[in-house]
Amino acid sequence: MGKLAIEDIRKDFPILDTEVFGKKLVYFDNAATTQKPVQVLKVLEDYYERYNSNVHRGVHSLSQQATAGYEKARHTVAAFINAASSDEVIFTKGTTDGLNLIASSFGRKFLQKGDSILISAMEHHSNIVPWQMICEERGAILKVIPMDQDGVLKMELLPELLDESVKLLSFTYVSNSLGTINPVKELIRQAHAKNIPVLIDVAQAIQHMPVDVQELDVDFMVFSGHKIYGPTGIGVLYGKEKWLNELPPYQGGGDMIKTVTFEKTIYNVLPYKFEAGTPDISGAIGLGAAIDYVNSIGLEAIAEAEHELLTYALERLAEVPGIQFIGKAAERASVISFLIEGVHPYDLGELLDKQGIAIRTGHHCTEPVMDFFGIPGTCRASFAFYNTTAEVDLLVAGIKRAAAILI
Ligand code: PMP
């Protein structure tokens, strides 16, 4: 498949040899979380075996080594997303944490009664609920860009929706339940033409395609390390320096301060102002290793391989009697949501699991998307570059076998 040495790549991911119910694992739940290559696992082990220590605190050697590793990872992330400065890279717990940080901090500083935040109809709950919480607190309104039956945003409505009440546009680059790739540049262009800042959630984009924050000219961006072959518990918030300097800290505590007295605290400079408390040091170092790994393969090659896999899977799945695809955008990432007539998604998920095939079933933390299509949930197969067409064949055969039992 493609130009990737797929068999060599698969050797980097020991978990792909795992057996489930006596069958070799076929892992198609990559949109939920990706598997980790040995290059990441070794770095984590090495950290805890050789230089585990707290960062930014001690003069002792181990602390300096841990600090150097942690800050090197920040530089790796900055280069990967082409940030103008590594001060613009804040380590968080993940996408959800980054979204809560911006909603809380931006909301407290800039949202007034009658203002609004504009999101899209296909947001993950983590790009809905934090905005509802802060809007309620500030008397602001949450507005939504609608989508059509293919799962494509109704861009013709955007000029009217971007009215003077909108203080921030926040949307996902790629939908985790539909696979739609949104027209990010055009959304940013229209918002900026009205001086409205933009936040993008790249939780489902950063592992699939190059994302350049300067080229996009985006104001804020969030993602999770675990979706790009890194550990859980670590994520990234990118923000333009001018915005991050203007925003108040999200949490108070150690590391985010310059001086503290009982009367007054002076906050630390970027990026530490937004990193209160002991951070996920090993997680950041692991994320740096994951990005090095992705770079060693190349995002262009990854995108090409995944696109081939997506095209093949869409063709093969179309053979399954009674299949209905949810989300039919022309521009899409390697996520396929579907239903089989007469089969409940959970039942299919369970029967596939018995055959060693892991897919996701349910609402995928996008209940409004499910409500829009009038369904309780979908089956979702999502691919990574380590997946193969042979695995897609197993999925298709597995679905047919399960449907024969269930219908
Ligand atoms: N946004 C999108 C588009 C996602 O796919 C996810 C994870 N499913 C999230 C946000 C939340 O990510 P996390 O749970 O890692 O914070």
From TrEMBL:
<dbReference type="InterPro" id="IPR015422">
    <property type="entry name" value="PyrdxlP-dep_Trfase_small"/>
</dbReference>
<comment type="function">
    <text>Catalyzes the removal of elemental sulfur and selenium atoms from L-cysteine, L-cystine, L-selenocysteine, and L-selenocystine to produce L-alanine.</text>
</comment>
<dbReference type="InterPro" id="IPR020578">
    <property type="entry name" value="Aminotrans_V_PyrdxlP_BS"/>
</dbReference>
<comment type="similarity">
    <text>Belongs to the class-V pyridoxal-phosphate-dependent aminotransferase family. Csd subfamily.</text>
</comment>
<dbReference type="InterPro" id="IPR016454">
    <property type="entry name" value="Cysteine_dSase"/>
</dbReference>
<dbReference type="GO" id="GO:0030170">
    <property type="term" value="F:pyridoxal phosphate binding"/>
</dbReference>
<feature type="domain" description="Aminotransferase class V">
    <location>
        <begin position="26"/>
        <end position="395"/>
    </location>
</feature>
<keyword id="KW-0456">Lyase</keyword>
<dbReference type="InterPro" id="IPR010970">
    <property type="entry name" value="Cys_dSase_SufS"/>
</dbReference>
<keyword id="KW-0663">Pyridoxal phosphate</keyword>
<protein>
    <recommendedName>
        <fullName>Cysteine desulfurase</fullName>
        <ecNumber>2.8.1.7</ecNumber>
    </recommendedName>
</protein>
<dbReference type="InterPro" id="IPR000192">
    <property type="entry name" value="Aminotrans_V_dom"/>
</dbReference>
<dbReference type="InterPro" id="IPR015421">
    <property type="entry name" value="PyrdxlP-dep_Trfase_major"/>
</dbReference>
<dbReference type="InterPro" id="IPR015424">
    <property type="entry name" value="PyrdxlP-dep_Trfase"/>
</dbReference>
<dbReference type="GO" id="GO:0006534">
    <property type="term" value="P:cysteine metabolic process"/>
</dbReference>
<dbReference type="GO" id="GO:0016829">
    <property type="term" value="F:lyase activity"/>
</dbReference>
<keyword id="KW-0808">Transferase</keyword>
<dbReference type="Pfam" id="PF00266">
    <property type="entry name" value="Aminotran_5"/>
</dbReference>
<dbReference type="GO" id="GO:0031071">
    <property type="term" value="F:cysteine desulfurase activity"/>
</dbReference>
